[in-house]
Amino acid sequence: MAAVITLKGVTIGYGKGAPPVLVGLDLEVERGSFVAIVGPSGVGKSTLLRVVTGLHRQSAGTVSLSAADRPQHRPFGLVFQDPRLLPWRRVDRNVQFGLEGLPVSRAERAERVRTALRLVRLEEYAKRWPYELSGGQRQRVGIARALAVDPDILLMDEPFGALDAITRRSLQEELKRIHKETGKTTLFVTHDIEEAVYLADRVLLLAGTPARVAQDLDTRNGARADHVERIRAGLAGDYEI
């Protein structure tokens, strides 16, 4: 399957003269795949997502995207730990936000909002205000907003990190279902190794100073516990792939 994201020799830093935080990253993300990125704080996981979107410029190397040229869509859908809902907008208007500015008719906009809310199972909450929602429901709205623009690539930065354990597990199940239904190429950053192994087809461990790809694991098959232990060993300093 063709790669939708290709990084070659990418090095990431935070300013002129500052030492790099991530060096020599080569990565191909296949269309429709779900790739999780794990590693300790400060290795550049979140910044890597910003490099993919073009919001942060890499110090060296190249980033290539094969996203289709579709004027009525956006190449990226972004989901953060904080849902960042606009409190003065009802749920449906929050989901609509990313569609504004696109050449989309009012009827199509409304249908795409309905479809996105249906995907996250919040259709009946369309006219509620953000303050009327639980934390998990607000995060579902954030996911719906990202999906409404029908992106080629879904980028998720610790989307469940602020949720309690029960809500987090529920949303993990929902995300697996949504990925199966939509087939969206997904790049998912998390500190939670078990979450990464459970959700993803492939897990990248970034570790070291400066960070490199310490492990690149195909997690589609094999015992989940074995993958988790292997990644933990990598974090302890055993970087053999």
Overview of the molecule:
This protein is α/β, with parallel strands linked by helices. The chain contains seven helices and nine strands; from the N terminus they run βββαββαααβαβαββα. The model has no long low-confidence stretch (mean pLDDT 90). The two termini are 23 Å apart. α5 links the parallel β6 and β7 (185-189). A six-stranded mixed sheet has the order 5-6-7-3-8-9, sandwiched between helices. Helices cover 33% and strands 24% of the residues. The chain has helices spanning 45-53, 91-96, 106-119, 135-148, 165-182, 193-199, 224-235; strands at residues 3-12, 22-30, 34-38, 60-65, 76-79, 153-157, 185-189, 202-207, 212-218.
